[in-house]
């Protein structure tokens, strides 16, 4: 039987449906993923509100509260945790069985992995929107159209982070558990970016931290989302995010090796 | 020939897992892949299913080389893995629909195929149950139904009776044999349990990565001058251990 374009479409739809069904089955995971950014928004931001003066910076047109400033960074934090967690489990332990099923499809492996990354990303967006709705309670009120214009930005960022996660799981053997990824990837990526403080604040504090933030792709992801949420387009942030997504997708897909994953679980085939 | 494996070798680093494995299976044949744990059965399956990249040798399915025509070969292959790969929190129907979509089946066509296979497995009334609610034997049946959804010509089962009680093991073995007889499906059934093999079955005996014999169970007994298959198996594998 010849493979047609509809095969590809059905396959993508099937993978997306499965991710969605698993998502709605795992409500506790959904809520616990929301608790983390909400704590930052409500507790951390409340404490810092007085300590940190935010000048009028792009894309905001007035003085803003600290909650408003960190909300886009926290949206990206949700995507960062989800992307890393999902990619890690694609390669190791729990998901390996379902990866085997996925790889039994006759369609090319690169296509299956791209579908998986996009599906995970789309499902993660539901969590981001749930967070943004709750954030209304602490007066994080972007323009109504911002909720729509931020969608493609969030999707691109989610795919980028999923691809980085898959790349890390495939290439860096030492980081095969989530604690390692959290300490050496998630936290440095998040803290050394513009998620919590504007870059000029970072520069005031330390020149070299500022330069690390400038080199961190997560900074551009956060700025892309921040601008899109307020109906602005940051072309530099978009270009860097897109380029990072493409580079890491290619590296992740070429480096994906189910054989190493099987060995990583300690269940080396007999 | 349905499957032709030629000079297949595979190494994990310096350790050889398969050494020049050579065999062929005819269409509609039930063949047991027999070997103790660590013999190389799962490695052979991982190569047959394209999960591992081939290092040496060739695999041909219905005249199509796996390396040259992976898409066409995978369309003809149904696989039941050793460990369950069903989503426990999804229903039987949802699990099967997912697999159908991976093979390009959707909508009415997928629903029809799912209904057909579930009926054949006598599982139609469990379609909307969560997999978690099924017992081990029924889960295996669902996995076989899933592997057959896209109507493959070859079915690979990697120790499918793992974790099943003796009654369920026997029933599953009987069921797959019946399927093989009814549909001309070629079946490769990996196992380390002698009681799943009949003397007249074709048996590929694998040990320490080498294919020791590829005749029938009777041939194995003759080769080792033993009356029972279990004794023949023990004798032949021990001989290799001594030689090594």
Automatic annotation (TrEMBL), chain A:
Keywords from the UniProt entry: Cell membrane, Membrane, Transmembrane, Transmembrane helix, Transport
Domain of life, source organism: Bacteria
GO terms assigned for molecular function: ABC-type transporter activity
Keyword Cell cycle: no
Keyword Phosphoprotein set for record: no
Limits of the ABC transmembrane type-2 domain: 28-259
Topology in membrane: Multi-pass membrane protein
Principal cellular location given in the protein's record: membrane
Cell compartment(s), UniProt: Cell inner membrane; Membrane
InterPro entries given in the database record: ABC2_TM, ABC2_TM_bact-type, ABC_2_transport, Alc_ABC_transptr_permease, T7SS_ABC-Transporter
One GO cellular component term noted in the UniProt record for this chain: ATP-binding cassette (ABC) transporter complex
Bilayer-spanning residue ranges: 38-57, 69-92, 113-138, 144-168, 175-196, 236-256
Endpoints of the signal sequence: none
Annotated family: Belongs to the ABC-2 integral membrane protein family.
Family matches, as NCBIfam families: phenyl_ABC_PedC
Record's protein name: Transport permease protein
Lineage start: Bacteria, Pseudomonadati, Pseudomonadota, Gammaproteobacteria, Oceanospirillales
UniProtKB/TrEMBL annotation, chain B:
Family annotation (SUPFAM superfamilies): P-loop containing nucleoside triphosphate hydrolases
Pfam families in the record: ABC_tran (PF00005)
Keyword field contains Hydrolase: no
Top-level lineage group: Bacteria
Keyword annotations of the record: ATP-binding, Nodulation, Nucleotide-binding, Transport
Signal peptide: none
GO MF term list: ATP binding; ATP hydrolysis activity
Limits of the ABC transporter domain: 3-233
Entry-linked NCBIfam families: PQQ_ABC_ATP
Family: Belongs to the ABC transporter superfamily.
Name assigned to this protein: ABC-2 type transport system ATP-binding protein
Organism: Neptunomonas qingdaonensis
């Amino acid at each position: 039987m010849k493979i047609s374009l509809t095969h590809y479409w059905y396959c993508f739809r099937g993978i997306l449906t499965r991710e969605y069904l698993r998502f709605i089955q795992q409500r506790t995971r959904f809520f616990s993923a929301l608790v983390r950014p909400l704590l930052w928004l409500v507790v951390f931001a409340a404490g810092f509100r007085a300590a940190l003066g935010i000048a009028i910076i792009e894309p905001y047109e007035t003085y803003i509260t600290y909650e408003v400033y960190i909300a886009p960074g926290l949206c990206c934090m949700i995507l960062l945790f989800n992307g890393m967690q999902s990619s890690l489990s694609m390669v190791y332990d729990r998901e390996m069985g379902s990866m085997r099923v996925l790889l039994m499809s006759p369609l090319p492996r690169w296509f299956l992995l791209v579908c998986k990354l996009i599906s995970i990303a789309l499902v993660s967006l539901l969590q981001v929107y749930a967070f943004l709705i709750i954030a209304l309670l602490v007066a994080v009120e972007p323009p109504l159209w911002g909720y729509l214009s931020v969608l493609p930005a969030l999707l691109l960022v989610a795919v980028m982070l999923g691809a980085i996660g898959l790349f890390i799981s495939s290439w860096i053997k030492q980081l095969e558990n989530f604690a390692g990824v959290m300490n050496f990837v998630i936290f440095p990526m998040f803290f050394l970016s513009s998620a919590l403080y504007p870059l000029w604040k970072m520069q005031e504090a330390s020149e070299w931290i500022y330069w690390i933030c400038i080199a961190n792709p997560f900074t551009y992801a956060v700025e892309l989302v921040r601008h899109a949420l307020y109906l602005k387009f940051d072309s530099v942030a978009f270009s860097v995010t897109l380029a990072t997504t493409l580079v890491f997708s290619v590296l992740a897909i070429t480096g994906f090796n189910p054989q190493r994953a099987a060995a990583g679980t300690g269940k080396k085939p007999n | 020939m349905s499957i032709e494996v030629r000079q297949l070798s595979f190494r994990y680093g310096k350790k050889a897992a398969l050494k020049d494995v050579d065999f062929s299976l005819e269409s509609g044949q039930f063949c047991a892949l027999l070997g103790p744990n660590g013999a190389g059965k799962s490695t052979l399956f991982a190569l047959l299913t394209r999960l591992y990249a081939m290092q040496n040798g060739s695999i041909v399915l219905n005249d199509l080389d796996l390396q040259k025509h992976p898409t066409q070969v995978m369309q003809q292959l149904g696989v039941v893995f050793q460990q369950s790969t069903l989503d426990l929190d999804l229903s039987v129907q949802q699990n099967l629909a997912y697999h159908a979509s991976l093979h390009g089946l959707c909508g009415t066509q997928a629903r029809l195929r799912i209904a057909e296979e579930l009926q054949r497995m006598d599982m139609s009334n469990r379609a909307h149950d969560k997999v978690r609610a099924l017992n081990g034997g029924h889960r295996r049946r669902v996995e076989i139904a899933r592997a057959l959804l896209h109507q493959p010509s070859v079915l690979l089962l990697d120790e499918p009776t793992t974790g099943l009680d003796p009654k369920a093991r026997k029933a599953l073995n009987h069921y797959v044999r019946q399927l093989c007889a009814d549909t001309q499906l070629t079946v490769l059934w990996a196992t380390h349990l002698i009681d799943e093999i009949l003397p007249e079955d074709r048996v590929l005996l694998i040990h320490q990565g080498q294919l020791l014999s590829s005749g029938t169970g009777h041939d194995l007994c003759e080769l080792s001058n033993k009356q029972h298959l279990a004794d023949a198996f023990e004798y032949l594998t021990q001989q290799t251990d001594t030689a090594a």
